[in-house]
Amino acid sequence: MDFSIALILTQDGIVNGAVYVLLALALVLVFTVTRIIFIPQGEFVAFAALTLAMLENGRFPGTVWLVLAGGLAVCAMEARALVARHDWHYRVQVLGWNLAYPLVLWALAATIDWREAGQWGRIAFTLALIVPLGPMMFRVFFQPIASAPVLVLLIVAVAVHVALVGLGLWMFGAEGYRTLPLWDENFLVGPLRIPGQAVWVLGASLALIVLLAQFFSRTIYGKALRATAVNRNGARLMGISPNLAGRLTLMLAAAIGAVSGILVSPITTIYYDTGFLIGLKGFVAAIIGGLAAYPAAAAGALLVGLLESFSSFWASAYKEVIVFTLIIPVLFWRSLRTHHVEEEEE
Amino acid sequence: MTKALSPAGPLAGQRGLPPRGMLAAFVALVVLAPFVLRPFQVSLLDYIALYALVALGLVLLTGIGGLTSFGQAAFVGLGAYATAVVTTSQNLPAWLSWAQGSPWGGLVVGLALTLAAALVIGSITLRLSGHYLPLGTIAWGISLFFLFGNLEWLGGHTGMGGLPPISLFGFELIDPAHFYYLAWAVLLAAIWMISNLLDSREGRAIRALRGGLVMAEAMGVDTSRQKMVIFVVAAVLACVAGWMYAHLQRFVNPSPFGINIGIEYLFMAVIGGSGYVWGALVGALVITLAKQWLQDWLPQLLGQSGNFEVIVFGLLMVLVLHRARQGLWPIVLRWAPVTSSPRPLDPTLEPLPQRPKPQRGSVILEARELTKRFGGLVANDKMSLTVKAGEILALIGPNGAGKSTLFNQLSGVDTPTEGKILFLGEDVTGKTSREIARMGMSRTFQHVRLLSNRSVLENVALGAHLRGRAGIFAAMLHLERREEAHLLAEAARQIERVGLWEHRFSEAGALALGQQRIVEIARALCADPCLLLLDEPAAGLRHKEKQALAELLDRLRAEGMGILLVEHDMDFVMGLADRVVVMEFGQKIAEGLPEEVQQNPAVLEAYLGGVQ
Questions:
Q1: Which residue, B77, B16, B18, is CA-closest to B50?
Q2: Is the pLDDT of residue B6 over 60?
Q3: Residue A53's pLDDT is what?
Q4: Residue B463: what are its φ and ψ, rounded to 5°?
Q5: Interface of A with B in 8-47 (CB under 8 A)
Q6: Which of B66, B68, B128 sits opposite A338 (nearest CB)?
Q7: Which residues of A touch B263 (CB under 8 A)?
Q8: How are beta strands B579-584 and B392-396 bridged, if at all?
Q9: CA distance A286 to chain B (A)
Q10: CB B310 to CB A156 under 8 A?
Q11: Nearest C-alpha of chain B: how many angstroms from A4?
Q12: Mutation for testing the A interface, residue in B213, B311, B319, B411 having most A CBs under 10 Å
């Protein structure tokens, strides 16, 4: 390997790593606020990429059905809760977001020729479809057992992931897709040929991180989420609803996942089940940060990206083996740092 | 004490079959099934037995021990690939030549490999808090799957064929109907052994993992070892299933050992009922049959081919965890005409040997200038106290005075920053709570730590953990029944001693809080201690119960027990304690007889605010 190859691999690693950074941040966010180890994060990535691909190809995105079904499930659950509590306060809001909104999406999907709508139009519609899946998922799957042990939440998360992969196959088929790049030009910098899409990935990731940082430090909702992450009961006593925090968190997670999917799909072919592996790499990074520290998770994500690109050069067949085996020394290192008996829950 | 140890009285609802009869009927059904069912159904049952074997490991690991693995399929793969290589490869290294070509050799190699892998992975992940283990198992499950698929000498993604059948006493198990008996014999034997294990001293120690590690360690349970034991046992069960799978298929490829199948095994255990050995079988049965049926039916419904059954499984799993977290087995039990009565306790057993007790009046515990700092906060500042055999020392003080910190240091949960603790004349500073428990110090907890769905008897018997020695194998084969009877008799004796005899078979969680505190005392007594540390034993007790508790502690003192009592209830303390130590802001502000302390101005100020 000479210097220029190393440079190219580094560039690849950083571009992939930037996406893992986003996912790792989302995973740390979800875990700290809700204690859910959010295995289905990768599904947002794959579903966003494939929805965009469907729109590009002029096909009806199956995600619309998912949003409709999710909305109906939320309505049904809310209705039960409302009847039980005789509390009709939020009914307009619930119906609006979970019935009217999906119906509007459905109408838009059915009437507009998205091939003519332009790249940004398609991206906007993709986000409109994927982002509401987050809060719906929280309401239907996690809110009823929000106080269960971490282990139960994890098993539910895995179950949701499994169901979503099956649904992904049904909605998008077994074929893989690549979407159109946002920026087709290439830049030559010394020995490097930097594709415009790589610039986009890095720029957008950075922008999103800055945006999230602002959200958490400046807005009342961001501060509420941070408070919940620090102390759930304390935040609750201060009037921060854990359910709202959970829905908001999964909305952010879905948005981050969808942006990641839109960013990587011009670089990598995405299949209905690709999300799992991408999401897990985010997990390896998040675990480096102990599922708690954002900067360490981001550094871990870059490490994972670099490790992946270099190992695909040296031993491409063992790329995944190497990346996932990384978790073992990382866990070992963490086990040396945690000191024994802690007061567990349950 | 003859009344005490007589068999349980008649129980309500003594109808239906006793479990033994039910079991015999089930075994008969298993034996006869191949004569009645069609070949493809028998072959399906072969697989169900193998899957149930893997799920059984997960019941032990997840349902009982509270650890979770999504990577069991990888252990199945290790077992399958090990035997595939051993039985088909022509150029095994010389040191393995003894095993070449023989499925039994393959089993031995597979077990050795699994053992090594489980020990390495376990030693890394089991020390971490709960959720890292499942994440670790996902990662290593994926790694191993890709490794199976990419190694040339394992046949890559196409796999390896031409495995010989297993032969038993010269009889080759080729026909699925013949293989059936091997698979089900192994499964039933495994269920028998795991049930035995759970019904033993080791089993109580395993269950104690869910009661919190601090509690388990205080009862003398080596929690790291116990976690490792169940992780290895689960891995071994998976490996044996993989070995049979390979020789049933006579062919291996990576796909049955991927992470998705690992997840499916966990689904089987959870849906069947992860807290019950038979749940594994129910889960394997339900998932396998449902899969068979859904794979025919769903692609037609959806107009596409693909593994759509996972949608149903995923949603079913969510439903089970939302609505019936115990799984299907308890629901099955509710409909089955089975009643069980608790095993009678043997009245003729002589008591367990007791440790030599220190002389009454001699100092058994001495804390010398203990200081504990958390960062800049000084929680305990040069605290000293002594407890003598045959006396009750009460440690009192307002909230936040540092009593619990002191208590934790004395019992070995926490290590003092400075100072020394002597127990029975030996320096125990920095020793683990397990070592200290072994020396004869036993404790209760401020927040009750009982296994609420187990009987009082079982909870109390956990206290006698260090008084038995039978290991895991003896427990699996129930070779330790004599010792076990002694331990249970001891537990029964302690239950009677504290006055909860009529509740011995009740679920601990069904008792009133005050009674649960008493159960904790019985559990502590079961360890045959010479020093009892009691953390607010009177909290939540009613007046009568407090009187009974005071009588009990008085009796123990008369027998020569040293008791250190952390308590808030002044009336209780003042009427009972020999001496009182008062703490405030981490320091000792007074010490002496109850009457003296009550008159002490510093104490009055601490409790009542400044006297005007």
A1: B77
A2: no
A3: 96
A4: -60, -25
A5: 37
A6: B128
A7: 158, 162
A8: parallel
A9: 11
A10: no
A11: 29
A12: B311
| Position B15 pLDDT exceeds 70 | no
A72 to A54, A65, A68: CA distances (angstroms): 24, 10, 6
CA-wise closest residue to A243 among A124, A138, A96: A138
What ipTM was predicted for this assembly? 0.91
Could you report the per-residue pLDDT of B282-319, keeping only the tens digit for each?
999 999 999 999 998 988 888 888 889 999 999 999 99
Residue with tokens 């070779």: B479
Minimum-distance CB partner of A152 among B121, B143, B321: B321
Q: Which of A155, A170, A341 sits opposite B302 (nearest CB)?
A: A170
CB contact under 8 A, A324 and B325: no
- Mean pLDDT over each residue of chain A, to the nearest integer: 89
Q: How far apart are alpha carbons B293 and A44 in whole angstroms? A: 30
Cα distance between residue A114 and residue A63, in whole Å: 15
Interface check A331 vs B, CB under 8 A: yes
Residues of A in contact with B255 (CB under 8 A): none
**Cα–Cα distances in angstroms (integers) from residue B469 to residues B194, B195, B205, B346, B464, in the given order:** 18, 19, 12, 20, 10
Which residues of chain B does A148 touch, with a Cβ-Cβ cutoff of 8 Å? Answer: 321
User: What are the backbone angles phi and psi of residue B368, rounded to the nearest 5°?
Assistant: -115, 110
Taken in order B403, B409, B415, B419, the sign of the CA dihedral is positive
On chain B, the residues whose CB falls within 8 A of the CB of A171 are none
Chain segment A110-164, per-residue pLDDT in tens: 999 999 889 999 999 999 999 999 999 999 999 999 988 888 999 999 999 999 9
Cβ(A164)–Cβ(A279) under 8 Å? no
Q: State the Cα–Cα distance between residues B554 and A161, nearest whole angstrom.
A: 59
Q: How far, in Å, CA of B536 to CA of B533, rounded?
A: 10
- pTM (whole model) above 0.95: no
Contact B147 A340 (CB under 8 A): no
Beta pairing class for A192-195 and B167-168: unpaired
Shortest distance between the Cα of A116 and any Cα of chain B, in A, equals 29
CB A321 to CB B68 under 8 A?
A: no
Min distance A334 CA to chain B CA atoms (Å): 8
In angstroms, the separation between the Cα of residue B215 and the nearest Cα of chain A is 10
Cα–Cα distance for residue pair A231/A237, rounded to 1 Å: 10
Q: Is A343 near chain B, with CB under 8 Å? A: yes
The token pair that represents A60 in the structure block: 């009806």
CB within 8 Å: A150 and B213:
no
- Read off the pLDDT of residues B469-525 as tens digits, 9 standing for 90 and up: 988 999 999 999 999 999 999 999 999 998 899 999 999 999 988 889 999 999 999
pLDDT at A8 over 80: yes
Mean pLDDT of B383-392: 94
Task: Reply yes or no on whether the pLDDT at A339 is more than 60.
Answer: no
Residues in chain B: 612
pLDDT at B610: 59
**Among residues B502, B559, B488, which one has the least CA distance to residue B530?**
B559
**Lookup: tokens for B251:** 């062919």
> Smallest CA–CA separation between B242 and chain A, in Å?
21
Condensed to tens digits (0 to 9), the pLDDT of residues A184-224 reads: 888 888 778 888 888 889 999 999 999 999 999 999 999 99
Q: Hey, are the CB atoms on B321 and A164 less than 8 Å from each other?
A: no
d(CA A101, CA A108): 11
Three-state SS at A30: helix
Phi, psi of B380 (to 5 degrees): -130, 130
| DSSP conformation letters of A224-276 | HHHHHHH-HHHHHHTT--HHHHHHHHHHHHHHHHHHHHHHHTTTS-B-TTHHH
Asked whether the beta carbons of residue A152 and residue B136 sit closer than 8 angstroms, the reply is no
